[in-house]
Amino acid sequence: MSTAAAVTRAAATIPDENATKKPKLDFESLYQNSLQLTRGMDQLPSLQRSLDQLHAVTSAKSLGSSAAPSTATNKAQFLLAGRGFDAEKLSRELRQHELKASFEPKESLGACDFDGFLRHHHEMIVVTAIEEALAASTRTSQQSEINALTDEFQVSKAKLMQDLQGKSTPAPLASQRPLHLPSTSSISTSSPATVSSVNLPSAMTEPMQVYAAALRSSFQAKSLSVPDFNLIEASTTAAKSLVSPTLSTDSAEHETLLVWELLGHMTRHRPATASSRAAGARQFFEARYAVFIETKLAQLGVPRGGDFGRRATVLTYVRDVLQLPPPQQVWAVVYYLLRSGSLTDAAAVAEGHAASSGSSSLPLVTEALRLYASDTPTSPPPLEKTHPALYRSLTSLFDTLLATHKASPGTTNRFEVAVLNLLTGRDPLLRNAGVIDNIEDFLWQGQFCSQQHVDPVAVAKNVLALVQPSEFNHTTLGGVFEYVRLLVTCQQFEAAIESLASKGFVVEAVHVAIALLLADHHHHHREDEDKEEDVPVKTTRDAVFTRLLRQYIHQFQTTNPSDAAMYIACHPNPDTVRALTSDLLLDTRAFQVLAGSIHPADGSRVPGALDLYLTRAEVREIVLWTSQQAQSQGRHVDALQLLVLVGDVEGGMVLLNGQLVQTLSSPVQSFRLEYERVDKH
């Protein structure tokens, strides 16, 4: 019994293996249990706090917890002190070895917001960039100065050694006079004294070279006795070569080409009078407007119907582009035919509508247009002198129509007023709204009306008095050249040249002045003036041209002395030519290029660049005068070389003897060295 009870108790003490095993859970059951945990969360209210609320709570907690660490710290220090540790000392030593978590800026910002911090940071970046750029500029300037001093020292050293050694071998000399002007590369055969001009690239820009080639052709034509060479046409061709198809129509090259084309029209007719120049300006504006109509129709894609004649083109322009009502179309077509330079077509249109229009003025206009179209001269005589009755009838109609037009513009045809004004020349300055749209329309009206006046220059002066320079925008290329074309149209050539130069277009101003001078159309040589110009006025004009010419050639005289001599030869005053040429010789020291050289075999003089533009006697006179200027400046070596170039042996001996006497009578060693230099040369 006892044994069975013991077995029973032992069996009871053995745990049941199946009972201790936990139930196995898979991922699906885990997921379901997790859902049980989150069930009911949707019913809890959401907690939303702004940044200000979070900041306030955080600040409150930090302030509230500051007292607790303080009590705990005191208790800890007390317990550590009981065991022999100085907690305060240990804290100080620990703080000394701690790394700073943040760094203060070099300049204290003070209390500022985020925008202020960014602004300060940006300012510091700008200041740093400025300081670095200044330091880099200083270093570059110092290095450039050192390089310039080194180069100057080397040039001075080479020149000094050359002066001390004298001429070693003569420069290569030409055997005969060249047929063409010396090129810019000819300076490489210049005198050894011209160290600064040897192997230097040309300082002339592409426009300078193109215009210089046109001027060179003029001198070549003159030397070959080519008749009727037109420098203005050659300059127009040169300006056209500078206009690239990629350039816009408002570029400086395009605007310059328009000025040359205007001058070409004004100087086309001979003899050149004020009337012929006014007629040329009128033809220029007419050709421009004809191109404008064609371009406008092409841009809008207006159907032409296969008829590309001037009359059909203008009719299409009036009907489809301007979209004028039929009652105004006849007078508008007549006006725009006159505006585009087709008198014959204008007379035909007026004649075709004279009977059916019912207008009393159209038959008179038709008769006047026939007379204008039949006149062969460029500037026909005034209608008042040839047909006074017709002129009085047209004038009476114009005065009546103009009075009505001013009183009630809507009851009259503005194009009829414009046509009558053109044929009578009654009011060259009439500003007809809707007809005169721009300055070119206004200038063309003035030139057309000037045909009925004895003195076209008086009409031009009235135009200048009415149109002030302030009406043009001189800050743009269009405004600058529009004002220049106004001055040229009104035959104020000097003012146009000065306006070009004052706006920085020195190249264009110089060549316009030279072209007008050589073509005898400048006011210095006006053929329609019977009396001589006042001496002060002529002197002032010469002074302005001299200043402009000197300013221009100074840009390239060192590298292109022969081209500079060519421009100097264009001056009309012989005394100024001598003075400018003398300065050119002394400044460039290109004696052999300009004044020629001496042939080593027979001692004959080989001509230089000056001989292409001046006579032999003029060149000799200029060289001798330049030699005197060199002596007065103490440049005895240059003076001797110039005397040798023109074969003045006697003058050279006098110079050497004078230097010898001065050297022997002076104890200073520098005079002896100077004499030795002169003697070697």
TrEMBL record:
It is found in: Nucleus envelope; Nucleus, Nuclear pore complex. The keyword Protein transport applies. Keywords: Membrane, mRNA transport, Nuclear pore complex, Nucleus, Protein transport, Translocation, Transport. GO terms for biological process: poly(A)+ mRNA export from nucleus; protein import into nucleus. Residues 164-193 are annotated as: Disordered. Residues 183-193 have a biased composition (Low complexity). One of its GO terms (cellular component) is nuclear pore. The keyword Acetylation does not apply. One of its GO terms (molecular function) is structural constituent of nuclear pore. It comes from the Eukaryota. Belongs to the nucleoporin interacting component (NIC) family. PANTHER family: NUCLEAR PORE COMPLEX PROTEIN NUP93, NUCLEAR PORE COMPLEX PROTEIN NUP93 NUCLEOPORIN NUP93 DEAD EYE PROTEIN. This is Nuclear pore protein. It comes from Aphanomyces astaci (Crayfish plague agent). The lineage of its organism: Eukaryota, Sar, Stramenopiles, Oomycota, Saprolegniomycetes.
